[in-house]
Amino acid sequence: MDPDQFQKNSMYVETPEAFGEGGKDFDDDGRVKRTGTWITASAHIITAVIGSGVLSLAWAIAQLGWVAGPAVLLAFSFITYFTSTLLADCYRTPDPVHGKRNYTYSDVVKSISDPSNFTDLLDLFTSELTTLNEQRKLVIKCKWEKIPTVWISSVHKSGRCNYRIHNNSFNKYGIPNFSKLWWLSIVAAVMSFAYSSIGLGLSVAKVAGGGGHVRTTLTGVQVGVDVTGPEKVWRTFQAIGDIAFAYAYSNVLIEIQDTLKSSPPENKVMKRSSLIGIMTTTLFYVLCGCLGYAAFGNEAPGNFLTGFGFYEPFWLIDFANICIAVHLVGAYQVFCQPIFGFVENWSKERWPSSQFVNGEHTVKLPLCGSYSVNFFRVVWRTTYVITTAVLAMLFPFFNDFLGLIGSVSFWPLTVYFPIEMYIKQSKMQKFSFTWTWLKILSWLCLIVSIISAVGSIQGLTQDFKKYQPFKAQQ
After folding, report:
1. Where are the alpha helices (DSSP H) in 9-117?
2. What is the pTM of this model?
3. 220: domain range?
């Protein structure tokens, strides 16, 4: 087929017949051979996980205490890793090694569960909340004058998004796939380690130097001293939601797995990458949460780096904030891709003859080469970024928003769908031992998600009582 036809036909889906199955330059599905390894996949996972919730963990540990805090962290770590291994086996269906590839989380759910449109809406909704929170944290850390950086990045990405599917630079939605964003994940992972290490170092220095008297207890904040009885309950629920959000990456796991080479089998490599990624992030989470709690005690702030705002060296804290900004720009680009793809694919199906939606226009820039620009993508993506930035500034509730997002997204994306899809794909016998305890795990996680959501909603209602637009809340 003439390569130019690929660009003209935006709804073209690559198949082995188009390129010749088994060709040395293409995989079994007709796409250019994937080159990802356990190293790049681990970097993607670390990018998606660290930074999404590490800043609030000292506060979460302060609510739960020395016993329950680390225990909850480790419990969520194990659950996330375990369900990620189930999801990794669902990348190919019906056989986890030789079956048909699925390119997105929604594709897997549709392929195995045959659901209604509710699944698409659920996936979009949780991705939207995650992306909005990434944008909101970016606004808080970078201040308002840095927001154009995100806008420029989005517009630049929009301009680069063409439909040259034959070179596999973009996936079927016309958006950059993870194999082309590996460098972004490496940079973001380095930034994650940088600002986490700075926070850890400052915490150690504060503890070693005395840093004033701080109170820490086995059960966290004390009733009658730090909080009232009801506040203790609500904060405990909210802290669980914060920790759940800290491990959220299931909605991009399939896209990460789709970057891996086919040999050795993708599911085996992905399980290894998940183990490395989760172990690495858990180590940092425990260190940041526990050392942050040791440094600030029961008065730990929602963002533990803000607690060092009046400590020297100031330049080190500023550098940590710059690292956070760089990391969140990368995380924002990663998490917004499913939303962009969903809307743009739907628009193409809704208005197939519209030049505004489907037309590609070549723009030549001096010293930069030629770019294929789609006006709809430029307008839609720019509008989306601006809108989420404004919303993030309007509602800067750090911990409560974090807990609510974690509560809403954790159970369906991290627990329910992976378990249900694994049960169906493996043809597991109903009421068998494994089936029973998987169901029990799912129901327990649902209960945890509900109570943490209630706690976060209660926290948001309290925030609104003292709400001031465009002012960050601690």
Report:
1. 16-19, 38-49, 57-88, 105-113
2. 0.74
3. 34-465
